[in-house]
Amino acid sequence: MLKHFTQSHAHLVSAFKLATQMRLSLFSTSLTNFHISQNDASFSCAPERSGQLGGVGMLRAILFDCDGVLADTERMHWRAFNEVLSKLGLQMSWDEYMRRYLAYDDPTCFRVFLSDVGYGFDEQLISELVSDKRKLLSERSSTLNIATYPGVIDFVLEASRRYYLAVASGAARNEIMMVLNSLNIANRFRVVVSSEDVKCGKPNPEPFIKAMELLNDLLCLNPPLMPANCLVIEDSIHGVKAAKSARMWCLAVTNTYPKEMLSEADFIVERLDPCLIPWLDQQIRAASGR
């Protein structure tokens, strides 16, 4: 019996090692019934473990981007940018917005765009453009139809029962709250970090680091959250870069870009679904040696 157990155990260990060495590219699981891509590089370059006790390597917090993850609002922002830019006789194509400007906060978007087209500006003009765009969206907030993606609400509700949730977005605070209130999920998030709360937006990691620090401070977490305890959910290239620069885990959703452009993320999915949550928890625990 002991010999049989030892042989069986050896077979299981071999099978597990083989499975973890394989690149799991866009495979379909019976549990989730949709596609998941897992980058093999993500596990060889996993966030460092600090060596401190208390939940190291365990998922404890999920940090969400807003536009393109929680809500399908990118075209809303693009139209608002163009309405403001039209006063300067300028227009930004949808392809340009997607390729170059999407993940920037409002001030950076205007600065980079005006620089790209050779339009002279100073910070006073940037401030006026940002104010005009935010005023425009605020005035239309009651008539805007904020759409979300399949599975998002259920994912947020389930995740909030297990983890601390935060939003870290390049949008203005009133725009983020407009989305959260419209989707009736505002009370699920302990912290909201907006463009007004940071000096540097994505791809700088500051928004995600700020969200983690606020969770620690506001909830008096002991032990405190560390980057290895945090999963970022993003849809943009800059957002993924910011998450990895923060040394956090990153789940990319292909709502905005194809998976080939999000390859720096640890996990890539076509959509969010609550069935993903235990799978992600298991993967992070396994990769962290828990």
Question: How does this model look, in words?
Answer:
This protein has eleven helices and eight strands. It is of the alpha/beta class and 290 residues long. It folds into two domains: 186 residues, Rossmann fold (3-Layer(aba) Sandwich), CATH 3.40.50; 66 residues, Orthogonal Bundle (DNA polymerase, domain 1). A hairpin with a 6-residue loop joins strand 1 and strand 2. The longest helix is centred in the first third of the chain and has 20 residues. It starts with a helix and ends with a helix. The N terminus is likely disordered.
Low-confidence stretches: 1-35, 38-55
Number of strands: 8
In the sheet with the most strands, the strands line up as 1-2-8-7-6-3-4-5
Helix content: 40-55%
CATH architecture of the largest domain: 3-Layer(aba) Sandwich
What Rg is obtained from the alpha carbons, in whole angstroms?
Answer: 21 Å
Top-tier CATH class of the largest domain: Alpha Beta
Topology as a string of helices (H) and strands (E) = HEEHEHHHHHEHEHEHEEH
Tally of distinct domains: 2
Q: Give the distance, in angstroms, between the N- and C-terminal Cα atoms.
A: 29 Å
CATH superfamily of the largest domain: HAD superfamily/HAD-like
Within the CATH hierarchy, at the fold level, what is the topology of the largest domain?
Rossmann fold
Biggest beta-sheet profile = 8 strands, mixed
Please state roughly what percent of the residues sit in beta strands, choosing from under 5%, 5-15%, 15-25%, 25-35%, 35-45% or over 45%: 5-15%
Helical run tally: 11
